[in-house]
Amino acid sequence: MTTQQTTSVLQQPVKWSWTRHRRCVGLARAQLRKMLARWGMAELEFAAVAVLSELVANAVVHARVPPGREVHTRFVPVDGGVRIEVHDASGELPVPRVPDESGGYGLTLVDELSARWGVAERGGVGKCVWAVITDGDRPAPQAAG
Question: Which of 36, 65, 95, 142 could form a cystine bridge with 41, CB 3.0-4.6 A?
């Protein structure tokens, strides 16, 4: 395998499925850290892990779905960074709240730490909440929406 082939194999999107339990947040963070290190993007770890934590926690805590539905994560290397996707079976869209003493900082944090984020339809029921994390020294990705 040539270096170019090895690089392209290492740069493939990765997916995981998680039970809807709070402990999956930490497990998903560990997988993202491994992938960022493998892709040579360790400098994105702080922002990427914080964003992932918020998106997975929202899917676990707020998604109103029948028991047994899983949460799926997908990490995609893009030019200048990584796209983080969290899929759940709830059609309820995330709505940023005005932060107060009871919380509401999650999507504000996602907005601050990501180059951009949004919600997309997915195959089947539910939605995909995504965010693109970039290093300010790298060019921003053009095709992640």
Answer: 36
**What was the pLDDT predicted at 135?**
85
User: What pTM value is reported for the model?
Assistant: 0.81
State how far the alpha carbon of 47 is from the alpha carbons of 33, 70, 141, in Å: 11, 24, 16
DSSP letter string over the chain?
--HHHHHHHHTS-EEEEEESSTHHHHHHHHHHHHHHHHTT-GGGHHHHHHHHHHHHHHHHHT----TT-EEEEEEEEETTEEEEEEEES--PPP-----BTTB--HHHHHHHHSSEEEEEE-SSSSEEEEEEEE-TTSPPPSS--
Of the candidates 37, 119, 123, 120, the residue with the CA atom closest to the CA atom of residue 82: 37
Q: Exposed, middle or buried by CB within 10 Å (0-12, 13-18, 19+), for 93?
A: exposed
Give tens-digit pLDDT for 68-104: 688 899 999 998 899 999 999 888 888 877 777 777 7
Q: In angstroms, rounded to a whole number, what is the distance separating the alpha carbons of residues 122 and 5?
A: 30
Phi/psi of residue 94, nearest 5 degrees: -70, 140
